[in-house]
Write a structure and sequence with these properties.
The protein has one helix at about 35-55, and strands spanning about 10, 15-20, 30. By secondary structure, the chain is α+β, with helices and mostly antiparallel strands. The protein has a domain at about 15-55. It has a three-stranded antiparallel β-sheet with strand order 1-2-3, covered by helices on one side. Strand 2 (about 15-20) and strand 3 (about 30) form a beta hairpin. The longest helix has 21 residues, at about 35-55. The chain is elongated and about 40 Å long.
Amino acid sequence: MKLTYTIVLLPDSEGGYVVEVPVLPGCVTYGHTLGEALVMVEDAIGGYLSVLQADGDPLPMELNI
């Protein structure tokens, strides 16, 4: 099963991008370029979900309406 999550890309005032994953509280990362930000958020999501699994917590699902 492949999970997909909505991300929010925010240009940083000093350059680069801050990336947030709204359905995963506290899952925030940064990249100097758009490409780097997208790679970093994939890694951040993977780490977040790994911790949830290790703790026996359910994986959040987004509702696509």
